[in-house]
Automatic annotation (TrEMBL):
Name of the protein described by the UniProt record: HlyD family efflux transporter periplasmic adaptor subunit
Domain Multidrug resistance protein MdtA-like C-terminal permuted SH3, residue spans: 312-370
Keyword Cell division: no
Any coiled-coil regions, as ranges: none
Biased composition (Basic and acidic residues): 27-37
Signal peptide (from-to): 1-25
A UniProt-annotated Pfam family: RND-MFP_C
InterPro entries: MdtA-like_C, MFP_Cation_Efflux
């Protein structure tokens, strides 16, 4: 009897368990699976993250991936920098213009009409200029040629008669007749050349054709600029100084370009105002690393002055901006922690700034990869 009771209890328990499972499968109230599915994934503790105090945690592996590099801050003396607005110009001794001296029609030269970028040597013919004139002017010149032709013929006949009387006629008369005949011949040739001859337009310097303002058959006027030739290895930068004192005692200068830094040597400044400013001239220091620039390209020139200022020199890319737009640098506080530091900077050259406040000597400052640290959230 007892065994029957035990078996009956077990059967009831099994049936109850099976019934409960069936109920859950058909819309029961057990949401344990859904809660497990909706649970958020835990954050990766090895990923870069921003800490509560504003610093950034970056593991060593991530530092290598982001290319972060640091250097120890070193205090030094740096020349103060004056900023100018300038533009690239041709070196006055290595560039020139080709202008029309008279009205005429443009014709191709021996190698065709010169085109942009064509390398030329001094004296190369870039094009020909065929003079153009009105019908009245042309008729007047034709009449002058005919008159000179007749006078030359008379002079030649007179010279022939005098030469037949050599020994009777004084030699000086024969020589005068010979000179007169030659003069008429030269005058006739000069007028005829002006009537039908063309003028060669030659390159004033060796270099490349920087600009061409004409096409074949175009009629131009006197003083029109037809070509400009420059030597790309000899360029200059002209800047404008609105204070005469700032333009005195300048040293070398730099200008930042997307392809690199342009190094400039100070040549001098003008003594006459131009549009309210003094022109200051720099020469581009040519080398294999010199970025390519074009004549007329605007530049921001940073020229060194005589005064000095102390600070920590860092690359321009080491300085970023915080949410408030203030300049900051990143200091390597611990092995895997970087702290933003508000600083005050002044330019040293186109690629370097000097931190004058906010950074202590010997602190390790991030000089490469600072922009990546600023993006960590």
């Amino acid at each position: 009897m007892k065994l029957h009771t035990v078996f009956a209890g077990l059967a009831v328990a099994i049936l109850s368990s099976a019934h409960g499972t069936f109920a859950l499968a058909h819309g029961g109230e057990d949401h344990s699976h859904e809660e497990t599915k909706a649970a958020p994934a835990a954050a990766d503790p090895s990923a870069p993250s921003r800490l509560a105090d504003g610093s950034v945690f970056v593991p060593k592996a991530s530092q290598r991936q982001l290319g972060i590099r640091t250097v120890a801050a070193a205090l030094g003396e740096h020349a103060e920098v004056i900023e100018f607005n300038g533009k690239v110009v041709a070196d006055p001794g290595a560039g020139g213009k080709v202008q029309a001296t008279q009205a005429g029609r443009v014709e191709a030269g021996p190698r065709g009409l010169a085109v942009l970028g064509q390398a030329v040597r001094k004296g190369d013919v870039l094009a020909y200029l065929q003079p153009v004139m009105s019908s009245v002017e042309r008729g007047s010149q034709l009449a002058q040629v005919a008159e000179l032709d007749a006078q030359h013929a008379i002079a030649v006949k007179r010279l022939a008669r005098l030469e037949q009387l050599e020994g009777v006629v004084p030699a000086r008369e024969i020589e005068a007749a010979r000179v007169e005949a030659g003069a008429f011949a030269a005058r006739k040739a000069a007028v005829a050349k002006g009537l039908s001859g063309r003028e060669a337009l030659v390159a004033p310097v060796a270099g490349v054709v920087a600009s061409a303002h004409v096409t074949l058959g175009e009629v131009v006027e006197a003083r029109d600029t037809l070509f400009e030739v420059v030597d790309p290895r000899r360029l200059a930068v002209e800047a404008l100084a609105y204070d005469a004192d700032t333009a005195a005692g300048l040293g070398e200068a730099t200008a930042a370009l997307p392809a690199g830094v342009l190094h400039l040597d100070y040549l001098g400044r003008g003594a006459t105002l131009r549009e309210g400013a003094l022109p200051v001239l720099f020469r581009v220091r040519a080398s294999k690393e010199t970025p390519t620039v074009a004549v007329g390209q605007p530049l921001k020139v940073l020229a060194k002055a005589a005064a000095k200022r102390s600070g920590v020199a860092v690359p321009v890319e080491a300085v970023t901006r915080n949410a408030a737009g203030e300049p900051v640098v990143w200091v390597h506080a611990d092995a895997e922690r970087f702290v933003p530091r508000k600083v005050t900077t002044v330019p040293v050259d186109a690629a370097t700034v000097a931190v004058t406040a906010g950074l202590a000597a010997a602190e390790r400052v991030v000089v490469k990869g600072a922009a990546s640290l600023a993006l960590v959230r």
